[in-house]
TrEMBL record:
Keywords: Membrane, Transmembrane, Transmembrane helix, Transport. InterPro entries: AA/rel_permease1. Coiled coil: none annotated. It comes from the Bacteria. Pfam families: AA_permease_2. It comes from Streptomyces mobaraensis (strain ATCC 29032 / DSM 40847 / JCM 4168 / NBRC 13819 / NCIMB 11159 / IPCR 16-22). GO terms for cellular component: membrane. The chain crosses the membrane at residues 42-64, 76-109, 121-145, 165-188, 195-214, 234-253, 274-296, 326-345, 377-395, 401-421, 442-461, 473-491. This is Amino acid/metabolite permease.
C-alpha cells in the first residue's frame, strides 16, 4: 500500500509483520487481544485529527500568539512548525507500522534500544508520554472551559473569573470521563462526526469572517506585523517563544498508535492516521488563522476583552453579537469533541503502561470493563490527573501556557526517543509495511534536532518580569514527574520492568513480553 507523501513509498511485505492478521502480529509482539478490534482506518485517523483540533489549539492559544509575536508569527510560525511536525510524524509513523500496539512509544523504545538499557529507555519514554497525554487533556478541556465561560459571560453575565473557569473545567472533565465510561459507542460515533465538524466549522467561520465584516486587516499586517507584549526586549527570543501556539496544537497524534489494538489493518492504518491527521490539520489551521487575523477589528480591544478570550471578541466585533456567539458555539463544540477524544487516547496509554506495572496501583488502572471491553478505570485517572494540572490557574495567570508547555515537552520527547533509537539501529531496523525508504534517515535526523530545540525553548520564561504570578512552572512539573519516575526506577523498577523472567511479571502476566507468540492478558 503506497505511502501518501510525495517522494516516499510504502512496500508491502517489507517485514515479518506482513501476511499475518492483526491479532497474530499483536501476539508476536507479546500481547493478547483483549480490547475490541472494531475501528476502521478512518476512525483511527479521526481520533488523532480530533485531538489535534485546530479549533481547540489554535483558538485557545490565539491570545498568546497575539502578544507573543503577533500576526506575523501566528501565520509563519504555523507554516514552519507544521512542516517540522509533519517530519516528526513521518518518523513516528514508520515505527508505528513495525510495532502496532497500544503501548505505543515506550514499547517501540524497548524494542529498539540496546539490550542492557532497553528497559530504562522504555520506562522514561512511557513516563514522558503519560505526562504529555495528561497535560494535553488538561490543556484541551481547560481551553474549552475558558471559551464556554466566555460564552456564558456574553449570554448570561456569568463572569469569566478563574473560579468559574476551574468549575467549568471540572464539569467538562467529568462529562468526558462519563462518556468514555458509559457511552463507548457514542464516543466512537462522535469521533467520526468530529472530523466533519472541524472541516465544515473552519470553512463556515472563515467564510463568515471573509464576507460579513466591512473592514479587514491588510495583508502587510496579517503576514508581516510583529507584536511583542511579553516584557522581553529580544524580538528573536519572543519569536521563538511564539512557536508554542502552533507546536501545542500539533500534539496528540500519537493517539493513532495507542488505538492500533482496536484498529483493523493496524500496521498501515495507524501510520496513515498519524500522517493524515497532521497534514490535514496543517492546511485547516492555516486557513483558520489567516481568516481570524484578517477579521480583527480592534487589536487592543480583542486582547482586553472582558471575556478573557480574544477570539470571542474578534467574532463579536466582526459578525455582531448573534453571529459571533453562534460561531463561538461551533468552536466550543469542537473543543468538547477534542477533549473527549483526548481522554480516550490518554486512557489507552495509561492502560498499556499499567499493564506493564509502570504506574502506582497498576492493577487498578489496567482493568478492562467486561461489558465495553475498554479500560474505564484508566479513563478516570486521565481525567483526575488533568484536573490537578489545571488547578494552579487559581493563583497563576500564565498557568494555561505552562500546561501547554508541559504537554508539548512531554509528548515530543516521547515522540522522538523511538526515532532516535531507530536511527541508531540503521539497517537493522525491521521495517513494517508502511515505511519511508531512503528518506528514513534524513527525516529522523531533522525530527530529533527539532525536538531538542523546542524542549529547551518551551521551558524558558514566557513573560517578563518573572514573578509567582507569571512563572512558567513547566520545568517544575516535568522535574517532579521525572524525579518520581527516576527514584522509582532506581529503587525498584529497574529490577523488574519489562523483565519477562522476573517473578512479578511471571505472576502478573504468565507470559514473556518479547518472545514471539507470547501472550499477556
Amino acid at each position: 500500500m503506497p505511502l501518501e507523501v510525495p517522494g516516499v513509498s510504502g512496500v508491502p511485505g517489507a517485514s515479518g509483520a506482513s501476511g499475518v492478521s492483526d491479532e497474530e502480529r499483536l501476539a508476536q509482539l507479546g500481547y493478547r487481544q483483549t480490547l475490541a478490534r472494531s475501528m476502521s482506518g478512518f476512525a483511527n485517523f479521526a481520533v488523532s485529527f480530533t485531538i489535534i483540533s485546530v479549533l481547540s489549539g489554535c483558538m485557545t492559544m490565539y491570545g498568546y500568539g497575539m502578544t507573543t509575536g503577533g500576526p506575523a508569527m501566528i501565520t509563519w510560525g504555523w507554516v514552519g512548525v507544521g512542516l517540522m511536525t509533519l517530519i516528526v510524524g513521518l518518523a513516528m509513523a514508520e515505527v508505528c507500522s513495525s510495532y502496532p500496539t497500544s503501548a505505543g512509544l515506550y514499547f517501540w523504545a524497548h524494542r529498539m534500544a540496546p539490550e542492557r538499557s532497553r528497559a530504562a529507555w522504555a520506562w522514561f519514554t512511557g513516563w514522558f508520554n503519560v505526562l504529555g497525554q495528561i497535560a494535553v487533556t488538561a490543556g484541551v478541556d481547560f481551553g474549552a472551559a475558558s471559551f464556554l465561560n466566555a460564552y456564558l459571560d456574553l449570554q448570561f453575565d456569568f463572569a469569566a473569573t478563574p473560579g468559574h473557569t476551574i468549575a467549568l473545567f471540572g464539569i467538562i472533565l467529568l462529562l468526558h470521563a462519563v462518556l468514555n465510561t458509559f457511552g463507548v459507542r457514542i464516543v466512537a460515533v462522535l469521533n467520526s462526526v468530529s472530523v466533519w465538524w472541524h472541516v465544515i466549522g473552519v470553512l463556515v467561520i472563515v467564510g463568515a469572517l471573509a464576507f460579513v465584516p466591512d473592514h479587514h486587516q491588510s495583508s502587510s499586517v496579517v503576514f508581516g506585523e510583529f507584536v511583542n507584549r511579553t516584557g522581553w526586549d529580544s524580538g528573536f527570543y519572543v519569536g521563538l517563544l511564539s512557536l508554542l501556539m502552533a507546536q501545542y496544537t500539533f500534539t496528540g497524534y500519537d493517539a493513532s498508535a495507542h488505538m492500533t489494538e482496536e484498529t483493523n489493518d493496524a500496521s498501515t492504518a495507524g501510520p496513515r492516521g498519524i500522517v493524515r491527521s497532521i497534514w490535514l490539520s496543517w492546511i485547516a489551521g492555516f486557513v483558520l488563522l489567516v481568516g481570524m487575523t484578517f477579521a480583527i477589528q480592534s487589536y487592543d480591544g480583542s486582547l482586553e476583552s472582558t471575556t478573557g478570550v480574544p477570539p470571542a471578541q474578534i467574532l463579536m466585533d466582526a459578525l455582531g453579537a448573534s453571529g459571533g456567539k453562534a460561531l463561538l458555539l461551533v468552536i466550543i463544540a469542537a473543543q468538547l469533541f477534542c477533549g473527549m477524544a483526548s481522554v480516550t487516547a490518554n486512557s489507552r496509554m495509561i492502560y498499556a503502561f499499567s499493564r506493564d506495572g509502570a504506574l502506582p496501583f497498576s492493577r487498578v488502572w489496567h482493568r478492562i470493563n467486561p461489558s465495553t471491553r475498554t479500560p474505564t478505570n484508566a479513563v478516570w485517572l486521565a481525567a483526575g490527573g488533568a484536573l490537578v494540572l489545571g488547578l494552579p490557574y487559581l493563583i497563576n495567570e500564565t498557568a494555561y501556557a505552562a500546561v501547554t508547555s508541559i504537554a508539548t515537552i512531554g509528548l515530543y520527547i516521547a515522540y522522538v526517543i523511538p526515532t532516535f533509537l531507530r536511527l541508531r539501529l540503521g539497517d537493522r531496523f525491521e521495517r513494517g509495511p508502511w515505511h519511508l525508504g531512503r528518506w528514513s534517515r534524513p527525516v529522523g535526523v531533522v525530527a530529533v534536532g527539532w525536538v531538542a530545540l523546542i524542549t529547551v525553548l518551551f521551558m524558558l520564561p514566557q513573560v517578563h518580569p518573572v514573578t509567582l504570578e507569571t512563572f512558567n512552572y513547566a520545568p517544575v512539573a516535568v522535574a517532579a514527574v521525572l524525579g518520581f519516575a527516576g527514584v522509582w526506577w532506581l529503587v525498584s523498577a529497574r529490577r523488574w520492568f519489562l523483565d519477562p523472567h522476573h517473578p512479578k511479571n511471571a505472576v502478573a502476566h504468565a507470559a514473556p513480553l518479547a518472545e514471539p507468540g507470547a501472550l499477556r492478558p
